[in-house]
Amino acid sequence: MLNLTRQERIVVAFLIINALIGLGVVYFKKTHPQIDTKITSSEFDQKRSSRISKKTFPIDINTAPTEQFMLLPGIGPALAKRIIDYRELNGPFNKVDEIKHVKGIGPTKFSKIKDYLVLE
């Protein structure tokens, strides 16, 4: 036939099997597009931004509950709880930028959320 050594036949078989697996994956992805679950960070940010725009803003940082803080970009449950805890411990905020005193909210995060915050 081709007079291949045993090791060469193993390498050829390995390459053929990998090519067939690759073709199977491509075929499966084409026939089942709804199963592709990889979400890039930009897609996540777009989904979160669309959630934010559908809610009522701006929010009053002296009365907002944890759930409302969690709608802000970069604010998860732990940071939202820290904001509430800070407010309860130190009293109401006098200025919006005082929220930067909460651990985890620095200048960068504040610049992303400041347009959503008010004091009433």
The proportion of strand residues reads under 5%
The structural class is: mainly alpha
Query: What order do the SSEs take from the amino end to the carboxyl end, as H and E?
Result: HHEHHHE
Number of helices: 5
CATH superfamily assignment of the largest domain?
Answer: Photosystem II 12 kDa extrinsic protein
Shape: rod-shaped
Biggest sheet: strands side by side, in what order? 1-2
Query: Biggest β-sheet: count, sense, barrel?
Result: 2 strands, parallel
The span between the termini is 86 Å
Number of strands: 2
Detailed description of the structure:
The protein has 120 residues and is mainly alpha-helical. It folds into two domains: 6-35; 41-118, Photosystem II 12 kDa extrinsic protein (DNA polymerase, domain 1, Orthogonal Bundle). Helices cover 54% and strands 3% of the residues. A two-stranded parallel sheet has the order 1-2. The model has no long low-confidence stretch (mean pLDDT 86).
